[in-house]
Specification:
Layout (H helix, E strand, L loop, with lengths): L2 H6 L31 H5 L3 H7 L8 E3 L12 E5 L2 E8 L2 E7 L5 E10 L4 E8 L3 E4 L2 E4 L9 E4 L21 H4 L12 E2 L4 E2 L10 H5 L3 H7 L3 H6 L16 E5 L4 E5 L6 H7 L5 E3 L9 H4 E3 L20 H4 L3 H4 L4 H4 L12 H4 L5 H4 L2 H4 L10 H5 L2 E4 L3 E4 L8 H7 L4 H5 L5 H9 L13 H8 L6 H9 L5 H11 L7 H9 L4 H10 L5 H8 L8 H10 L8 H16 L4 H13 L3 H14 L4 H13 L3 H14 L4 H13 L3 H14 L4 H13 L3 H14 L4 H13 L3 H14 L4 H13 L2
Antiparallel strand pairs: 1-5, 2-3, 3-4, 4-5, 5-6, 6-7, 6-8, 8-9, 10-11, 12-13, 14-15, 16-17
Helix pairs in contact: 17-19, 21-22, 22-24, 23-24, 24-26, 26-27, 27-28, 28-29, 28-30, 29-30, 30-31, 30-32, 31-32, 32-33, 33-34, 34-35, 34-36, 35-36, 36-37, 37-38
Length: about 750
């Protein structure tokens, strides 16, 4: 993970992992206190076949005590040097050690306590004070030597990472307790003490064992030990998560389409949602055991810029579930276990043999279909329909969206495509032209959201009507519709209120949660009217978003109080993340509890000095309190953390404007504009500030340059029109005004400006 990828993942609610516990948490769905984890050894007494398949799997070896049978790396006094730092790996008295730069920048010798992962790389965990386990950022490439493996390598080969940096092995980005533990162990309890800033993390199984998926097994064990007659009379076998329903289904080939159909149609996604607890990009909301109610314990990331390409393909580490939700296979009822044996994790068949279990080989595993030599790399189904990306330098992961290759979309919208993954020396236009010649090529006629999202990301307000259509299209995947609603909220759309109201009533929890998340754009009375029912939603991810959005409203119901308590409980549970303290600070701020907001923002800075939103929010609190000198001081501290932050320079510039120090403000606003040429808002503010300083020529240059990048940004057009008018450039002003009016039909101010300029035209 690169520096920008790490910092952007810590906004609102940090996207950390699922931490499973059977202890009831404040505000969470109560869990029976008599339910306990029993351990994989006990499960194996009755489930020997499943235990045998699981033994030696990646789940079994997800985390292990360091020893001769588990450590794969070269610890025979091996050395690895990178960016001026050297690490030595060696053994001493049967233990494994690493000699490296410590948290204070001085050389230190640390014992390797655990191995982490197994293939295609293995990391090593060492201990630090406060119960912290840290993953070393020099890892072992466990692939065969023939493909470049059997070597030490840096996870950050293009970074210089000194001690004290968030990406240093001792920093927050590589803290096992908060970032990794949930998906590599079973029955894990984070147990973070925010006052002492210490962990007392524990687990029931060190690895991903039976109860990580099936839930705590004590009640099931009690049931299993009943007599045959007693078990026969007891309908509930005591399992938290029932995963056996998939065995009742049959897949029947449809002769007309050549694609198998599930009979009966899937009515539950328990299995897939159980896997999603770890195989997704999400925020943790509770420590409840896994199960079908994924959206009760997690908040799923949408198809956000930086995480996904505009067409929904994977970009950052998003871990399968979000891409799978977009697929027609998911819509058809396919679950993880249809392709992956859930205990060994092995594919149920190798190569195309896996795919032709449901896709008729005589129709799809043919040259007519894939247009490649049979048996070649290009003839493999996954190469076209599951393109891959490489993470952590050597970890190749496949997209689970199962898309048809669309190089034509690459030409139009600069998204990747599977064809050019292999034909890298050819252009996307070549690939698009080649595909047009294929028989039965009809994919370009299919509806596609790529262009809509791509234009919205560029600030094109003309995409509003299409975003509105996407959000309301029940035939589309929920994650696409929720993303469209989120994008729509970024634009001034008269249809936003209606779109939010419809989403709030939708059956898909992603739509309901998204409606609450974007409802801040509505007037408070309308917000209350739409969101009040969501305060009692059956899923926590919806309730807490509704509560957060209504925090500053006049609503006084017990449902709001309960939702806010749940929201607070989520932040307390994640108090090892600075973002959780920022969330609390914003909540206190919105409820007028300014002293508590101040304390929360300061806690955020103390917890994560690298987390810039904490400084910016604290400075904004001081702005409201007319404490501009303190706001300036806080922002200067933020610049000591990162002098390349456009947002901090921008905030500091605005503070200096409010203090009447315009020349200094222009320096900061100009630096922000230089650092973030792609952010229209920052360019707009700098342009307005230049105009206010009687530097209108420079203002027009900045604003027109920004307009070229963002031709549909309303604020930029409005500024260009008015500044051009005031400079006597009536023709240019009129052109901008007409474009503004066309982009904002019904905007009385835009129409009035256009009429005025037409009347003044010579």
């Amino acid at each position: 993970m690169m520096r920008t990828e790490f910092t952007r993942s810590l906004f609102i609610i940090a996207f950390c992992g699922a931490i499973v516990s059977c202890d009831p948490q404040p505000g969470s769905t109560p869990v029976d206190e008599s339910i306990n984890y029993v351990g994989a050894t006990v499960c194996a007494e009755c489930h020997a076949r499943q235990a045998s398949a699981w033994s030696g799997s990646h789940h079994d070896r997800a985390m292990q005590e360091a020893g001769i049978d588990t450590v794969l790396g070269d610890f025979e006094n091996a050395r690895f040097a990178h960016a001026g730092a050297s690490t030595r790996f060696f053994r001493r008295e049967g233990e494994y050690h690493a000699q490296l730069e410590g948290p204070d920048g001085e050389p230190t010798d640390l014992r390797v306590l655990y191995t982490f992962g197994v293939e295609p790389l293995q990391q090593y965990l060492v201990g630090l004070p406060g119960g912290r386990l840290q993953a070393l950022t020099v890892a072992w490439d466990s692939r065969p030597r023939s493909v470049g493996g059997q070597r030490w390598f840096s996870l950050y080969p293009d970074e210089v990472v000194p001690s004290g940096d968030v990406l240093h092995w001792s920093g927050a980005a590589n803290n096992w307790n908060s970032a990794c533990a949930h998906c590599h162990s079973t029955g894990l309890r984070k147990r973070y003490d925010a006052q002492a800033r210490e962990y007392q993390t524990s687990w029931s199984d060190i690895d991903v064992a039976c109860e990580a998926c099936h839930g705590p097994g004590s009640k099931h064990l009690t049931w299993a030990r009943l007599s045959d007659a007693e078990r026969a009379s007891e309908s509930n076998p005591g399992l938290i998560t029932e995963l056996a329903a998939r065995d009742e289904a049959r897949w029947v080939m449809n002769a007309a389409t050549g694609i198998a159909e599930r009979i009966p149609r899937r009515s539950s996604h328990t299995e897939t949602q159980t896997c999603a607890h770890c195989h997704s990009r999400r925020a943790l909301l509770s420590e409840d055991p896994p199960g079908e109610r994924f959206f009760d314990s997690h908040q799923l990331a949408l198809l956000e810029e930086g995480l996904y390409e505009a067409d929904g393909q994977i970009l950052d580490e998003v871990f399968v579930y979000g891409s799978f939700l977009q697929s027609r296979m998911y819509a058809a009822g396919v679950s993880c276990g249809d392709c992956h044996e859930p205990h060994s994790l092995a594919l149920r068949a190798e190569g195309n043999a896996l795919c032709v279990r449901c896709h008729a080989s005589e129709r799809f595993d043919t040259r007519r279909h894939h247009q490649h030599t049979p048996g070649s790399e290009g003839a493999r189904c996954v190469e076209c329909h599951m393109p891959s990306r490489t993470y952590m330098q050597v970890d190749v992961r496949r997209d689970h969206g199962f898309r048809v290759p669309r190089p034509d979309l690459s030409v139009k919208w600069d998204v990747p495509n599977a064809c050019n993954s292999c034909h890298a020396q050819r252009s996307a236009r070549w690939a698009a032209t080649a595909l047009e010649r294929w028989p039965d090529r009809r994919t370009q006629a299919r509806p596609n959201f790529t262009g809509v999202f791509a234009r919205s990301r560029r600030g094109d307000s003309a995409s509003r009507s299409e975003l509105r259509e996407l959000a309301g299209d029940a035939a589309l995947p929920g994650i696409v519709r929720a993303t469209a609603l989120h994008e729509l909220s970024r634009h001034r759309s008269p249809s936003l209120a209606q779109a939010i109201a419809e989403a709030a009533r939708d059956a898909d929890p992603l739509l309901r949660a998204a409606s609450a998340r974007v409802a801040d754009a509505l007037a408070p009375p309308e917000r209350v009217r739409i969101l009040r029912p969501l305060l009692s939603d059956r899923l926590r991810s919806v309730r807490i978003e509704a509560g957060r959005s209504l925090a500053e409203s006049d609503e006084q119901s017990s449902a709001l109080a309960a939702a806010l308590e749940e929201y607070r409980a989520v932040q307390v549970m994640n108090a090892d993340q600075p973002s959780a303290h920022v969330n609390l600070g914003i909540l206190h701020f919105r409820r007028g509890e300014l002293d508590r907001a101040d304390a929360a923002f300061r806690d955020a800075i103390a917890t994560g000095p690298y987390f810039l939103p904490a400084y910016v929010n604290l400075a904004d609190l001081y702005r409201v309190q007319n404490r501009e000198d303190e706001a300036e001081s806080i922002l200067l501290r933020a610049l000591e953390v990162d002098r390349e932050s456009a947002e901090v320079h921008h905030a500091l510039g605005l503070s200096l404007v409010r203090q009447g120090r315009l020349s200094e403000a222009l320096e900061q606003l100009g630096e922000a504009a230089r650092l973030a040429p792609e952010v229209a808002r920052i360019q707009y503010v700098y342009g307005i500030a230049l105009s206010s300083a009687a530097r209108s020529v420079e203002a027009l240059r900045i604003l027109s340059s920004a307009h070229e990048r963002h031709p549909h940004d309303v604020q930029l057009l409005s500024a260009l029109a008015t500044i051009s008018r005031d400079m006597g450039r009536k023709r240019e002003a009129l052109a901008y005004a007409r474009k503004l009016e066309a982009l904002t039909p019904g905007n009385a101010d835009a129409s009035a400006l256009r009429r005025q300029l037409e009347a003044d035209r010579p």
